[in-house]
Amino acid sequence: MAMYNFADVEPKFSGRRNRALMKKEERQLGEAVDGLAHMTEKQLKALSPLVGEQVLDAVRIAAKLPRSNQGRKRQEGLVAKLLRDRLDDDAMAQLFAAVEAAKTSSASYQDPRIATQAATWKEGLLAGEQGVMEEVLAVITRVAAAARSGDAAADGQEEDEDQEEAGTSGSEDDNDDQEAGDAENDSQHQTVGSAGPAQASTQLPEPQR
Questions:
Q1: How many whole angstroms separate alpha carbon 44 and alpha carbon 99?
Q2: Helical packing angle, 14-37 and 70-86, nearest 10°
Q3: Span 30-54, mean pLDDT?
Q4: Rg of the chain, C-alpha, whole Å
Q5: What is the pLDDT of residue 102?
């Protein structure tokens, strides 16, 4: 009896299945982009390690545009393209889960990799492992340096804003002084003009008799 080799048989409707799967993935990606556009700034920042700042900047631009605007659709398409190029299947699944969770909660996304790393550090610290201590200390040092850098940048921005406000206030004071001077000059001209004819009449010579 001849054996039938099923490996030689091409599955029917494979193209249709692939197209259906692609459509489903595109729909999920579109829903994820829409979900990102509705997230709070805090929730978006929590996703930065997962998707990157470039994606989040594109999301912020899309969120500011009206939904009926064609520019928003193009911007959301750009976000979707960036996500496809940057995220693998595991990261995409985490993104879908984060977007779904954000629909029912205002809590920020928690990267499971961070929780795993924290648990590893905790075990190492309790065991007194020198390598883990050095690694944790290095992370704390980097975070503290980044915080100081951010504070310095914020202070510099506030100082620039104060200087700009002071310059604007000085310009307004100069304008007020100039307007007051112009008003005073106008008043003097009017006084001279009204007194001119009276003075001229007193200076006329008397007629000879």
A1: 10
A2: 110
A3: 92
A4: 37
A5: 86
| CB-based contact 62:72 (threshold 8 Å) | yes
Residues written for the chain: 209
Residue whose tokens read 């007051």: 180
Average pLDDT over residues 84-92: 92
Could you give phi then psi for residue 110, rounded to 5 degrees? -115, 115
Distance (Å, rounded) from C-alpha 36 to C-alpha 84?
Answer: 15
Strands (E), the chain: none
Q: Produce one character per residue of 179-206: b if its CB has 16 or more CB atoms within 10 Å, e if not.
A: eeeeeeeeeeeeeeeeeeeeeeeeeeee
pLDDT of residue 198: 45
Tokens of 136: 């944790």
Q: Could you identify the residue written with the tokens 């610290």? A: 125
Which has the closest alpha carbon to 109: 30, 60, 56, 54? 56
Q: Give pLDDT tens digits for 109-123.
A: 555 566 677 788 888
Question: pLDDT band at residue 188, thresholds of 50, 70 and 90?
Answer: low
The answer to whether 108 touches 46, Cβ cutoff 8 Å, is yes
- Residue 124: count of CB within 10 angstroms of its CB: 16
The answer to whether the CB of 103 falls within 8 A of the CB of 35 is yes
Q: Which helix (H) or strand (E) is 66 found in, with range?
A: none
Phi-psi region of 52 (alpha: psi -120 to 50; beta: other; left: phi over 0): left
Q: What is the pLDDT of residue 139?
A: 81
